[in-house]
Amino acid sequence: MKLNRLFQITAITAVIFGFIGCDEEFTEVGGEIINNPSNVELREIEVNAYSQVVNSIQTNNLSNSILGVNNNPVYGESAASIITQLTLSSENPEFGENVQLDSVVMTIPYFSTEIQNSVDGEILYALDSIYGNESFKLSVYETSYFLNDLDPDAGFEQSQKYYSDQQSNVEQNILGEALIVKEDFKPSSASFTSYEVNVDGVNDTIVNAPALRVHLPVDYFQNKIIAKEGSTELLNNNNFKNYLRSLLIKAESNGSGGSQILLNFAEQGRTPKISLYYKKDSDDGDETEQVRGSFALNMTGNRFNTFEGEFPEDVTQAINAQTSETGAEDLYIKAEEGSMAVIELFTDAEELEALRSEELLINEADLTFYVNESLVNGGDEPRRLYLYDLTNNTFLADYALDITYSVANPDASITNFSEVVAEDESGKYYNIRITNHVSRIINNDAENVKLGLVIVPNINSAVSRGAQGSLGGSLMSATREMPELIDQIPSVNSLTPTGTVLHGNLSNDDDKRLKLKIYYTNFN
After folding, report:
1. In whole angstroms, what is the distance from residue 179 CA to residue 201 CA?
2. How many whole angstroms separate alpha carbon 454 and alpha carbon 333?
3. CB 89 within 8 A of CB 296
4. What is the pLDDT of residues 410-465, one digit of tens each?
């Protein structure tokens, strides 16, 4: 590591990062640093690290959802499906006289970026947050599975939690045949044209950014919605959500290799919905003239993701063989319902006390995770890893004090703390800088908490932020059927299917073995 880079980072982390919305007080590092000290030393400290399978994650607290099938060269095939409520865009709707339903279209926006304009003015797009480039089987079912707002087991005093392993519960409540089955659905980057009826009953032609867009059966919605005009079922949304309880948007493998894509449920002005387009008699009573109308069933109620898929037997055996007492040769990290790593610093209490007695000035402290490229089989590496306080389920001081935060470019955000995957002469690696965290443990007797390591598609989304970028709390999801220590996990971990394998603290390759590297100045 170049020393000038080290001193630059140390100086940056000494800057106060605005208002930090957290109960914990952060200690800044670098107040006593002199310009360009020449006596910086390096000390490598053994750590303990091991993998932990993530069995069941709360997914009904996410702003967006992921859909599709992913094939990972290490972790095998997994499928992500969505269970969602529908809500009436207006309660107790009046459709008009002699209504004839023309078409029904389900539309859920993708994340996309406009890339250029062609000669004829057509807007072209590139899809964001898509993993894989093949098709998958897509089905939509009505179910009688009711999504509660509040948890009846908690006396209706807490929000209901829904988990990633509940798909079988939903499928037991499927009503009838699938509304639609697409054997080879493939996300498309093409824009599409829609016709929205304006206040004068005339179709406005609108060009829209890419979206999941499929036609649903007209007869079903004619009977389920249009024919129910004036009924108690459509009187209000409470009644309606009990009448049409939920839809299962199911992804399955079709053997092609599949793809998963993050769906945009949160953008204002692009509400995911099912649009009913129809003709009706003119409102002026002229039975010989028909005008167009439309009605929307919005996907703005409760919604959660489910994940299905099993690790290959060799991966499961490798994880099960690891112990918290000794650590592991390899760390298996897989997002969604996958696996994470637990990191323990300063496992030797005597060594920690000796460090504290030296009163060292910590210039930089790094954890460098090298990819075990012999195991990942050439798969695409996740862009970012996120390290957090697993004991208290919150972010670290180094995350909070990183002034490189960028809302416009998440890939270039918080990079002093967690660098984007890089490569040197030894191979691919992730570097996570925890200077403030380590300094507080050594020099301020802060609690030596256990750390959690997960994959994130957007490191900004690990926490909530105020209008000026000030930090609120960590965005965490509950877990089930896991050790007591891991009762929560960063919510954003559920929004990407990526995975990797990292060299652990018992790696046979000493140059890539996980260690804590502390660069310090000793003025004693």
Report:
1. 29
2. 7
3. yes
4. 999 999 999 999 999 999 999 999 999 999 999 999 999 999 999 999 999 999 98
pLDDT classification of 8: cutoffs 50, 70, 90: very low
- Whose tokens are 């306080």? That residue is 389
Closest CA to 296 of 448, 89, 509, 52: 89
DSSP state of 381: P
pTM listed for this prediction: 0.91
Domain borders along the chain are 3-57+320-521, 65-301
SS3 (DSSP) at 314: helix
Tell me the pLDDT tens digit for each residue of 320-342.
999 999 999 999 999 999 999 99
Q: Which two tokens stand for residue 412?
A: 């270039």
DSSP 3-state of 237:
helix
503 bridge partner residues? 330
Q: Do the beta carbons of residue 371 and residue 500 sit within 8 Å?
A: yes
Q: How many residues does the chain have?
A: 524
The set of long-range contacts for 323-326, using a CB threshold of 8 Å and a minimum separation of 24, is 323/50, 324/48, 324/50, 326/48, 326/506
Out of 12-26, 103-117, 196-210, 434-448, least confident range:
12-26
Average pLDDT value over all residues in the chain:
90
Residue listed under structure tokens 């301020």 = 444
Task: With CA atoms as reference, report the closest residue to 54 among 318, 375, 307, 367.
Answer: 307
Picking from 462, 397, 490, the residue whose alpha carbon sits closest to that of residue 24 is: 397
Strand partners, 364: 519
